[in-house]
Design brief:
This protein has 588 residues and is mainly alpha-helical. The strands form three sheets. Strands 1-2-3 form a three-stranded antiparallel sheet, with no helix packed on it. A two-stranded parallel ribbon has the order 4-7. Strands 5-6 form a two-stranded antiparallel sheet.
């Protein structure tokens, strides 16, 4: 909302400058401030993806870890990092504010990359080099060496969580959603948000991965640390130009308060008239009561002692909640079945930075005299995402004027279906690779006479699937969440990625335990050429098919709260993104 405080100057009543005074519209926020904040996210992607996509080969060939163990370490790192985004959002909403959360955790991420650079550079922090053709006699990294490595990896993950949980929200705060011109700019900005940050990913899986493989890991990780520090300095340099929002506290607290109040009052009787349930929300923000999950309604039943001291009109939120707060929690619960059925896709995604990279490492990657780094094959994965988004935008959204296209639930369904095809194709391609291995088993060789470019389809198809899953899921979770819980819904989306990696870890460990045959070798052996990765991919494909069936049932069951918005979910991930960001509140 705009307020005229001085002649010729317009100030915003819901945004503040670095001094805490109402922000002057002409001198704060806008494209440049948002782009500066976006720059730190691009560097975060550059750092995280540059390290994560090539980490499995480092663990295999430098730290001398078994193939399945390397995959598990990378999956656990990615899972914990994305799960910690919940903590990052809580810290930003309740304590530090988005501005300081980004500034501090960018340094933490830089320190993590720095520790990894030291670990990769000092000979005493690595096991002795190992000849791949004599891998049986390789010495694994000891406890100290792995301990230093894990410290760096943990700091990197914490930095990711802090930056990612707040960066896009602070960028949106730079636009006034009540001003049509600025809102249009905000929508345009976030329409390109995912595209721009993928530039960082492309640089990571090409230039940075090449430096790591052909120059040194220490130099590559050092570049990551320098990129984060540089981005943070540029980010801090514009502190006087940003717009800040007041903190309103974490919505996680509201969730716990409603559940606590409902449990405490579980034995109380409902009033004869539901209108007697407690409500003090304004009419424009009020959400009407529904009959789903009625046990939660007990939180809004008024009883003795709810208002604390005698004469007080303010209830104790741990004893009494409004109907609106109860309904907001119900809306989040209704989202959970869709949330659960998107997790398995991220298990598919995890294969692109673990086993698929190991496959590429065992094959011929030459283009003339140039050797393509194994992790660089993820450029086809990123390419699949970007080309799909561009084609969908130009062929579907622009031609229809943005009024038609797939709903978000349909996008998710398409992505899940494509991911099943991707894993089936990957299983077929692995059978071809294993056939070559059997043909050359008696000939000692570290590189199979089979071009790694036969793996391009599996990378590209998973990328196409992610384009639909990512855009559809993010728009659905944010668009269908109540205004006061959009931050928690965004974190909920990020946890699907986290749990997808954890599912990968569980599957890998389970397969290793139950599949040893007569020869005692499990499907996922210590070396990838001794494994039956085709069986593993086939299992994921079958699980994906079952999951897709469950998803169809859940999507048909899902009904949005009619008093909250229209039954048709938003088709534009970025429009939902904008609504989320504008609805959040904080102060730095």
């Amino acid at each position: 909302m705009e307020v005229e405080m001085e002649e010729g100057k317009t100030f915003l009543s819901d945004a503040f400058d670095y001094k805490g005074a109402p922000a002057e519209k002409a001198k704060t926020g806008g494209w440049v401030s948002a782009a500066t904040i976006l720059g730190i996210e691009m560097c975060e992607r550059f750092t995280t993806m540059g390290i994560a996509t090539n980490l499995v080969t480092y663990l295999d060939h430098t730290m001398n870890q078994p193939s399945a163990t390397s995959s598990t370490i990378v999956s656990n790192f990615s899972g914990v990092a994305f799960l910690t985004c919940l903590l990052g959002g809580f810290i930003a909403d309740s304590f530090l504010g988005r501005y300081w959360t980004i500034a501090i955790f960018a340094v933490v991420e830089a320190l993590g990359a720095g520790v990894l650079a030291i670990s990769a550079t000092l000979p005493g922090l690595r096991p002795p080099p190992c000849n791949p053709s004599q891998a049986v006699n390789c010495v694994k990294a000891n406890m100290l060496q792995m301990g230093i490595f894990y410290i760096g990896l943990c700091a990197l993950g914490m930095g990711l969580a802090g930056v990612k949980s707040s960066v896009s929200a602070l960028a949106t705060d730079q636009f006034d959603h009540n001003d049509k011109k600025e809102k249009t700019k905000m929508e345009y900005f976030f329409n390109r948000f995912y595209l721009v940050i993928n530039i960082g990913t492309i640089l990571a899986v090409t230039v940075l991965v090449y430096i790591q493989d052909e120059v040194s890991r220490g130099v590559g990780y050092g570049i990551c640390a320098a990129a984060m520090i540089t981005a943070d300095i540029i980010y801090l340099s514009r502190s006087r130009k940003y717009r800040y929002k007041k903190r309103s506290g974490s919505p996680l607290i509201q969730v716990v308060q409603v559940i606590t109040a409902a449990i405490k009052k579980r034995k109380l009787e409902f009033p004869s008239d539901v209108s007697l349930l407690y409500e003090d929300s304004s009419l424009e923000s009020r959400v009407h009561r529904t009959n789903h999950f009625r046990w939660l309604d007990k939180a809004a039943v008024i009883s003795d002692g709810d208002f604390g001291k005698e004469g007080s009109t303010t209830p104790n939120p741990w004893k009494l909640s409004t109907v609106t707060k109860v309904e907001e929690l119900k809306m989040m619960i209704r989202i959970l079945p869709i949330w659960a059925t998107t997790i398995l896709f991220w298990c598919v995604h995890a294969q692109m930075i673990t086993f698929s990279v190991q496959q590429a490492a065992s094959m011929d990657r030459s283009i003339g005299k140039f050797q393509v780094p194994p992790a660089s094959f993820n450029v086809f994965f990123i390419g699949g995402i970007m080309i799909t988004l561009a084609l969908y935008d130009s062929l579907v959204m622009k031609r229809s004027g943005g009024s038609k296209g797939l709903t978000n639930l349909q996008k998710i369904g398409v992505g899940l279906a494509i991911s099943i095809i991707a894993m089936a194709a990957a299983a077929g391609m692995e059978q071809k690779r294993l056939k070559v291995i059997r043909s050359y088993k008696k000939t000692p060789t570290t590189t199979l006479p089979l071009t790694a470019f036969v793996l391009v389809p599996q990378f590209a198809i998973v990328g196409i699937a992610e384009a639909f899953i990512y855009s559809g899921s993010l728009a659905f979770f944010i668009g269908q969440a109540p205004k006061g819980m959009k931050a928690i819904s965004n974190s909920l989306f990020l946890t699907t990625i986290a749990f997808g990696y954890f599912v990968t870890t569980i599957l890998v460990n389970l397969i290793k335990k139950i599949t040893p045959g007569k020869d005692g070798i499990p499907w996922l052996a210590s070396k990838i050429n001794d494994s039956r990765l085709d069986y593993f991919y086939a299992v994921i494909s079958v699980l994906g098919l079952i999951n897709f069936g469950v998803y169809l049932v859940c999507a048909k069951w899902y009904k949005p709260n009619s008093s909250h918005g229209s039954a048709k979910d938003s088709d534009d991930v970025n429009a939902s993104h904008d609504e989320k960001r504008a609805g959040d509140a904080e102060i730095s």
